[in-house]
């Protein structure tokens, strides 16, 4: 099956499988906040309209300043981008023709970006039997001779959060090897206490942290992300960044969203409770469900050969999950599901129950 390599845009999934799309669908392939954007967005939408008439600040100075203050950094340690995707490609551009290691399973965009710049890419593939956790001795061995290592934490697609000491061991070793470590924290704020390695930036010049603002604040259509790192690295990325790549609306939404601490706390509480409820229900239906720390999780029918059939069955019922065919280490063995609203989750559980009855 030639399936899309990303979630969202479900019409392309139905088109690829030659299936008729139901009139009503729920897209569980999208990992944005099920509670939606903060309330201010609707309240202030009229005023925000005025931003479309003028060019944006090419340096996004106000947004970067707010991020820097929030993280206890200087403004020149922050760079915003047109979504995390632009920033991934910018980082990859620094490693043209060099060697990179990706800790997998992982977001396919890393490999795509690196290959587009002629990088030699290797994968360190985590194993399900080890709980998809890092094995530092093995990883350190794989790291030798690499110029860049990419780690997604919390991980997409597993939802697993790695042991902080294990990550620091990798970063410390990479520092001695003169290897840059990029930690993608796109989903860190969905986990309790929002675990991050940002406080370690003063200790490691070889560390860069990637963040997204579109997931937590449900503004994926706007496209906004940022990176945190040392000044020299940020300046190199800034020199390669297209002028005006972050539009005025995105900048102002980002500034306002970063002050929405209550929205984040409310989301974390909802996600934890609803994820545990849904996973418990799936367990009771004899599905294998991977324990997750964020707003999505992996699930599979214990009849593994029927995963494709389950995927298509759910599509026929208007439940769009994320296939895992292009995640190395998974190769389609699981489906990834986002945590949605209670009503939407119940609709999915109803269909999973129906499928179980047909097995």
TrEMBL record:
Output the InterPro entries linked to this UniProt entry.
Aminotransferase_I/II_large (IPR004839), CobD (IPR005860), PyrdxlP-dep_Trfase (IPR015424), PyrdxlP-dep_Trfase_major (IPR015421), PyrdxlP-dep_Trfase_small (IPR015422)
Which Gene Ontology terms cover its molecular function? Answer: pyridoxal phosphate binding; threonine-phosphate decarboxylase activity
The EC number(s) given in the record are: 4.1.1.81
Tell me, which GO biological process terms does this entry list?
Answer: cobalamin biosynthetic process
Cofactor requirement: pyridoxal 5'-phosphate
Q: Where is the Aminotransferase class I/classII large domain?
A: 24-350
Pathway noted in the entry: Cofactor biosynthesis; adenosylcobalamin biosynthesis
Q: Which reaction does it catalyse?
A: O-phospho-L-threonine + H(+) = (R)-1-aminopropan-2-yl phosphate + CO2
Q: Specify the domain of life of the species encoding this protein.
A: Bacteria
Alphabetically list the UniProt keywords.
Cobalamin biosynthesis, Lyase, Pyridoxal phosphate
UniProt keyword NAD, yes or no: no
Q: What does this protein do?
A: Decarboxylates L-threonine-O-3-phosphate to yield (R)-1-amino-2-propanol O-2-phosphate, the precursor for the linkage between the nucleotide loop and the corrin ring in cobalamin.
* NCBIfam families assigned: L_thr_O3P_dcar
Q: What is this protein called?
A: threonine-phosphate decarboxylase
What is the species of this protein?
Metabacillus arenae
**Lineage, highest ranks first:** Bacteria, Bacillati, Bacillota, Bacilli, Bacillales
């Amino acid at each position: 099956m030639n399936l899309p390599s990303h979630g969202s845009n479900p019409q392309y999934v139905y088109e690829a499988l030659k299936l008729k799309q139901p009139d009503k669908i729920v897209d569980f392939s999208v990992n944005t906040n099920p509670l939606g954007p903060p309330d201010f967005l609707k309240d202030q939408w009229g005023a925000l309209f005025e931003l479309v008439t003028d060019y944006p600040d090419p340096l996004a100075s106000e947004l970067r300043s707010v991020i820097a203050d929030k993280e206890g950094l200087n403004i020149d340690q922050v760079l915003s981008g047109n979504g995390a995707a632009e920033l991934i490609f910018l980082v990859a551009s620094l490693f043209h023709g060099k060697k990179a290691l990706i800790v997998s399973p992982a977001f396919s965009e890393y490999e795509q970006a690196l290959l587009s710049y002629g990088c030699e890419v290797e994968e360190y593939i985590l194993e399900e039997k080890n709980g998809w956790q890092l094995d530092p001795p093995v990883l350190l061995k794989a790291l030798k001779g690499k110029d860049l290592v990419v780690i997604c934490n919390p991980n997409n697609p597993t939802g697993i959060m790695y042991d902080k000491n294990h990550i620091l061991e990798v970063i410390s070793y990479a520092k001695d090897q003169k290897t840059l470590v990029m930690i993608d924290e796109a989903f860190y704020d969905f986990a309790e206490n929002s675990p991050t390695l940002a406080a370690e930036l003063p200790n490691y010049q070889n560390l860069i942290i990637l963040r997204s603002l579109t997931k937590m604040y449900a503004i994926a259509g706007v496209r906004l992300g940022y990176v945190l790192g040392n000044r020299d690295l940020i300046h190199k990325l800034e020199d390669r960044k297209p002028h005006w790549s972050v539009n005025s609306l995105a900048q102002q939404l980002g500034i306002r969203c970063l002050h929405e601490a209550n929205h984040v706390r409310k989301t974390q509480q909802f996600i934890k409770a609803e994820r545990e409820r849904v996973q418990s229900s799936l367990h009771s239906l004899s599905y294998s469900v991977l324990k997750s720390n964020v707003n999505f999780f992996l699930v599979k029918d214990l009849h593994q050969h029927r995963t494709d059939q389950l995927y298509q069955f759910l599509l026929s019922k208007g439940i769009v999950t994320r296939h895992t065919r292009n995640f190395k280490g998974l190769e389609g063995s699981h489906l990834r599901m986002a945590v949605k609203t209670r009503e939407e989750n119940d609709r999915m559980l109803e269909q999973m129950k129906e499928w179980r009855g047909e097995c």
